[in-house]
Structures are given as structure tokens and as C-alpha cells.
Design brief:
Cytochrome Bc1 Complex, Chain D, domain 2; 114 residues
């Protein structure tokens, strides 16, 4: 219960707008330069079959949830030194919360069931 209480709470519709920044490398339903986001929540980092992850991501031990996404999205290269995700991060905590709300909503949403 404590983990749920400490997780950031965001606005998924605002997060959809923020997600457009991610679309340069990611998509919900298929791999691009970065792995797909369908099924992200609850998935072990570095585990999408067939995607070529960095060794750092594969050995990170991260399981994606609101807390781990918040930490990673704030500064990917600090959270997982050696990651190949060359993005400076989402510095604004409210934007991160909105993006995480969107990712949580979409993780098993209609785009992921096609």
C-alpha cells in the first residue's frame, strides 16, 4: 500500500502529449530504435524478446512501475549507467507523472491488443 501511495499521480491525457517526444524512438505496439511500450508496466527491463538492449539495461534488475519509471525518466543515464537511451530525461516531476499515467493507461490498452 505504501508503494502505491508514494507513486506519482498524473494526468494521462496530458501524458499523451508528452509521449509525442518519445515517439522519435518508441511506439506503443512495436519496436523502433527503442523497445515497444505495450506491456511496459510490470515488465522486467531489458526483456522484450528480439530487442537488442544494452548490457546495462539487461542487468539493471528494474521492473517497470510508477516509482522505477519516475526515477529512470528523470535521468536515464544516471538511473542505468551504460544505457543506450541517449535522452537527457524529463526533468519536470509533473510532466513525468503525466507521462507515467499515460504509459500505465496504455501499457495494456487497445493499441496493445491489436
Amino acid at each position: 500500500m505504501l508503494a502505491a501511495a508514494s507513486a506519482p499521480v498524473g494526468d494521462a491525457s496530458a501524458g499523451a502529449k508528452i509521449y509525442t517526444r518519445c515517439e522519435a524512438c518508441h511506439a506503443l505496439a512495436y519496436d523502433r530504435t527503442g523497445p515497444r511500450h505495450c506491456g511496459l508496466i510490470g515488465r522486467k527491463a531489458g526483456s522484450v524478446p528480439g530487442f537488442d538492449y544494452s548490457a546495462a539495461m539487461k542487468r539493471s534488475g528494474i521492473v517497470w512501475n510508477a516509482k522505477t519509471l519516475d526515477r529512470f525518466l528523470a535521468d536515464p543515464m544516471k538511473a542505468v549507467p551504460g544505457t543506450t537511451m541517449g535522452y537527457a530525461g524529463v526533468k519536470d516531476p509533473e510532466e513525468r507523472a503525466d507521462l507515467i499515467a499515460f504509459l500505465a493507461q496504455q501499457s495494456h490498452g487497445p493499441a496493445c491488443t491489436k
